[in-house]
Amino acid sequence: MSDLLKSLISGGPKGFEEAKPSFNSQEALDEANRCLYCYEAPCITACPTGIDIPSFIKKIASGNMKGSATTIMEANPVGASCGRVCPTEELCEGACVLNHSTKPIPIGDLQRYATDWAIKNEQVLFKAGKSNGKHIAIVGSGPAGLSAARELARLGYEVTIFEAKSEAGGLDTFGIVPFRLPKDISLWEVEQVEKLGVTIRTNMEVGKDISADELLEKYDAVVLAIGMSKVPMLGIEGEELAGVYDAIDLVERTKNGIYEKEFIGKRVAVIGAGNTAIDGATTSVRLGAENVKILYRRTEKEMTAYDFEYEFAKQDGVEFRWLTNPKRLISDENGHVKQMECVRMELQATESDGRPRPVEIAGSEFLMDVDIVVKAIGQTRHMKMIESFGLEHIGGVVKVDEESFITSNPNVYAAGDVIFGKGIGEAMVVTAAQQGKETALSIHQRFKEYTAEQV
Amino acid sequence: MADISINFAGIKSSNPYWLASAPPTNTGYQVQRAFEAGWGGAVWKTLGEPILNVTSRFGALHFNGQRVAGFNNIELISDRPLEVNLKEIYETKKMYPKHVIIASLMVEPTREKWHEIVKKVQDVGVDGIELNLGCPHGMSERGMGSAVGQHPDLVEMTTMYAKEAAEVPVITKLTPNITDIRETAKAAVRGGADAVSMINTINSLIGVDLDTWNPVPHVNGQGAHGGYCGPAVKPIALNMVGDCARNPEINIPISGIGGISTWQDTVEFMLMGAGGVQICTAAMHHGFRIIEDLTEGLSNYLDEKGIDSLSDIIGASVRKYTDWSDLDLNHKVVARINNDICINCNKCHIACEDTSHQCIDMLTDENGSDYLKVREDDCVGCNLCSIVCPVDGAIDMIDLTPTEPPMSWNNRQAAIQMLQKADS
What we know:
Distance between the termini of chain B: 64 Å
Number of helices of chain B: 13
Shape of chain A: globular
CATH class of the largest domain in chain B: Alpha Beta
Number of domains of chain A: 3
Mean pLDDT of chain A: 94
Largest sheet of chain A: 5 strands, parallel
Largest sheet of chain B: 8 strands, parallel, barrel
Distance between the termini of chain A: 43 Å
Helix content of chain B: 25-40%
Mean pLDDT of chain B: 97
CATH architecture of the largest domain in chain A: 3-Layer(bba) Sandwich
Oligomer: heterodimer
Strand content of chain A: 15-25%
Helix content of chain A: 25-40%
Strand order of the largest sheet of chain B: 3-4-7-8-9-10-15-16
Number of helices of chain A: 17
Shape of chain B: globular
CATH architecture of the largest domain in chain B: Alpha-Beta Barrel
Radius of gyration of chain B: 25 Å
Largest interface: A-B, 16 and 12 residues
Structural class of chain B: alpha/beta
CATH superfamily of the largest domain in chain B: Aldolase class I
Number of domains of chain B: 2
Number of strands of chain B: 20
């Protein structure tokens, strides 16, 4: 039995298995045959990793499944995950020319179908390049780190990834709800990279188990792909009470098969309305919560969750309370949260990031009975680590040269969420994957003359 | 409601749709079901000396997810005793006196054999006889079917034998497995045929299994060529019907056969000279119930065109089907892209760029939007772009106002000869 299959039938509360069924072969063929096989197809341009989408779809239609999976994974080392988590309506499917005549090709589902084939058939799609003697350290094994590692290994570099957690894959492994992205999918992508000879040293926290200086000293270059960290503090009274969760922690625990029992039959308030808030809310529903509300200080219009995520949450019965902000959490006699004082907000002129500024309406405070609060108001940065490398940054967003991904230290590159700042692009898995690829190419630009002499 | 009945070589049928001689007309049960469903007639599965069949028998060509673009079979003529078939023909004709039953026949090419079988089927009341001189597989190895149909002399002789004994119309069914079908059609005319029907199936091998490397279909690991039919053969059949219809020596009715699946196909065959049509593969794919749309669609089409009777369209396009050398060399069409309908798949561009005349440009307008444009001066009006275009109405082929009077290759050669004569 494949690991994928095992994970699908393993225990746990209902609803943590992948929510969307995969295409059967007939559905895949029907949809693949509907693809027009456009020339200079807009879906390719719309894909941050530039997957040759018409090609991989044509290969599904012809039965060349290995070729199809290779086309996808060639352009996107985390293509199996992206088939599931990409906001395809905003990317490839949104660009499909059939939007103008019938309905777009379900590119994400076809990508999942092709990569699932590779997973089930235990395919190894790529080979390591001939060793060129250069050693690269990558910190972080999420989409950006894995992508950089895969490309560097194919180019002949010896790559070591340092990962703080017990398993590799980063956000894909731990940060996206299992009913959208089962852990095994991400672990297969990790395994693909390991099979190219990349060493992944898990449980290795830079700054604790190994120092930044040591990495800088021992390796020809270092790639910082450390993503982002936990949810920041709300900064309100009662935040330390029992029953208050960090959404990212909560998701990570379910990815590890730990299902909090406390949620059963409870009233849950999720603070925030981004991707993580949706994940926190839909996870709460699956953990058995009786009522789940998302509280957001702005409105439906400003929330950063994608339309499909919003729809998904609404279908799960999640309620939304717009223009509502928590002011303090109130404890019961056992130190457990029992109420939340909220205040109504209104929107005023825009902030620097283009979104309207929410302002409290004086005297509009009210109490809401809650049993659990899930915080999902963004993510903090790994400040200490960034500073241990001595890199220039703005509020934890590492500064890089846009072309070369070189940081203020010429031997350190950075890619993925660690360079993602407010208002610049989107913090998508697929963007991180592309940056990882580009970083690898940039490193190769620098060393290829030297390595050419070696070869 | 338009009258869609036909009178084909003296055989009256309530509609132009007959089931072709094939598996659907193997038994009385099937033919009766077809008549109940609304088919005008049926050409009974070919009768002859008893034969044996093999399993498996059929294969099909699927194309880009569409099943049965083409179909092939290695089944032979009826494998049921002649007496059983005759009894069922008799019963069926009695139950459905207004429906047409044609007996398809195939025996050795001797006068006695043909006289004998023609009389037998006539005695049970058939409305006509079709001579199966076209079956390309199995029977041809025994000197029958297409082994006869490929020799104009044998076609003429066999037709004559049948005619000598026949009191009902005789239709000679022709094989397409021949260089020029007009030669065997003329032979049928010489033999006295009341009509010809075309086409029988085309020699074919559907495929080879990629895992077993067996031919498809196969019989215990071996295959033999079969007869090809279904939608994919329609253009071949239509050309043969048109070529015969426009030949003055072939002045007898033509029953059109070959890939007809819809009422539109029917209209095309009849415009190109068919007096009626026969259908098999479409029924094998979907069942006899397709007759409802076949008749209704045809009737609605005629109503829409203001035509009272189907007979009025028979052969109406024949005069438009000619030799290449009679085509107007001075006529110009060009492609024009309607950018408000175009969805920018760029298929026209790449088809033209790689495989035609490099005259469709991918451009960007002042707002940064992509659009496609034909350089009409370089366009040869080949139609390729409009063929590959997936959206109706996005590419029109436009007739340009002629700058020269019409001139065909024949006109041109004649004019050159005249000039040369004048010079000398």
